[in-house]
Amino acid sequence: WLSAYVNTSPTRPAWTFVVDAVLNTLKPDGVNNPNDVQTFLTFWAPPTRGTCASRVPKEIISMLKMARKHNMSFAPIKLSQTHKQQLPAWLHLGALPRTYHKIKDACLKRTHEVKTIKDLLKVSNRPTTVPHHWENHDCVCGQCISDRLAGCKNPHKCISTAAAIINNLTPKFNPFHCPVNYGLTLTHRRLEKNTRARTQHRGDIVFDPSVSEKSQLAECFRIFAGDSETAQTPAHRLQRPNQGRGQQEPPVEIYTDGSCINNGKQDAQCGSGIWFGENNPLNKAVRIPGENQSNQTGEVAAILIRLQSVSPLVPITIITD
After folding, report:
1. What is the DSSP letter of 285?
2. How many CA atoms lie within 13 A of 121 on its CB side?
3. pLDDT at 122
4. Does the keyword Nuclease apply (predicted)?
5. Which pLDDT tens digit goes with each residue over 54-71?
6. β-pairing, 252-261 with 316-319?
7. Which one, 20, 100, 132, 169, has least CB within 10 Å?
8. Angle formed by the axes of helices 142-150 and 155-167, to 10°?
9. Residue 164: which H helix or E strand, with range?
10. What is the mean pLDDT of the segment spanning 287-310?
């Protein structure tokens, strides 16, 4: 149910729209249109207990509780411009404090029928897209005249309000924010070498730092990802200090291995080994805590532990099986 509900594609089941309608009866004050609130795409969480929740079918409440139990949240690593524009304009997950103003936003909701970020962009971009637009309340361009006839008293004020809302979104969600291109994406030739190294089990595999964009918003939902684990700003590459021409840290080779007793069984216990070199104080053996243990868990844990012990600017080669 939960997986089908967060599906935002055209194949979304009909019953999910009924759930939307039911949940929107619990929407907070100031949200006028029934489609304004999309539960898991906003910072508003429907109540699962109390008087309001008692009006909601128990199946829907059960679905909401399941989502909260597993910390399901919208946690994309990277969003395309198309996906950014599909997100709701109101109660936005990336909105900073004091982004919204009940009185100023009322005309955008009522007259301009703004529901998504795409709608906000359409309003805010008018000075650059509509010919003969004047940046004052007396503008006589065709679009501003139409807005006044529809009931907007000050179209340019609404334009400024729409732009202010977009500018108050965190960089990950802001359609005006363009990620920095560090030129680290692997070339086609390097990708082919990586493929051969994997299939032949021989040679180096160069880490590809490129982050792919998802094709659907539904693919951006994560479980076990609470607010504290979800970054609101995109990651940036650290800049190397100016050490002089041609100077850089010497490369480091790290050998890692994971082992597991009773691998594949319920009582499996795994550990990790990290080896830098003979008599190196950074050599370490680690017992891995937690459930769902396996030799792969030990292997990955060894790599993560060792990466945390070296400078992020040091070239690293990881030798593992």
Report:
1. E
2. 14
3. 92
4. yes
5. 888 999 999 999 888 888
6. parallel
7. 132
8. 100
9. helix 155-167
10. 82
Decide: 161 and 108 in contact? Cβ < 8 Å: yes
Orientation angle between helical segments 102-110 and 155-167, nearest 10 degrees? 110
The whole-angstrom separation of Cα 282 and Cα 254 is: 10
- Cα 180 to the chain's mean position, in Å? 17
Distance CA 123, CA 143 (A): 10
Those residues whose C-beta lies under 8 Å from the C-beta of residue 16, and which sit 6 or more positions away, are: 4, 5, 7
The dihedrals phi and psi of 222, each to the nearest 5 degrees, come to -130, 150
**Residue appearing with tokens 């919204």:** 100
**Residues paired with 95 in a beta bridge:** 169
Give me the percent of the chain exceeding a pLDDT of 90. Answer: 14
As a whole number, the mean pLDDT across the chain is 82
pLDDT of 100 higher than 80? yes
8 A C-beta contact, residue 80 and residue 220: no
Residues 286, 272: Cα–Cα separation, whole Å: 5
Separation of alpha carbons 92 and 94, rounded Å: 5
Residue that has been written with the tokens 């334009």 in this structure:
159
Query: What are 234-277's pLDDT values in tens digits?
Result: 666 666 666 555 556 778 887 778 888 888 888 888 888 888 78
Check: CB of residue 274 under 8 Å from CB of residue 305: yes
Residue ranges per structural domain of the chain: 100-167, 252-319
The most confident of 23-27, 147-151, 223-227, 259-263, by mean pLDDT: 147-151
Residue 128 to residue 142: CA distance in whole angstroms: 14
Nearest to 30 by CA among 88, 109, 94: 109
Contact 56, 26 (CB under 8 A): yes
- Going by pLDDT thresholds of 50, 70 and 90, the confidence category of residue 32 is very low
CATH architecture of the region 252-319: 2-Layer Sandwich (3.30)
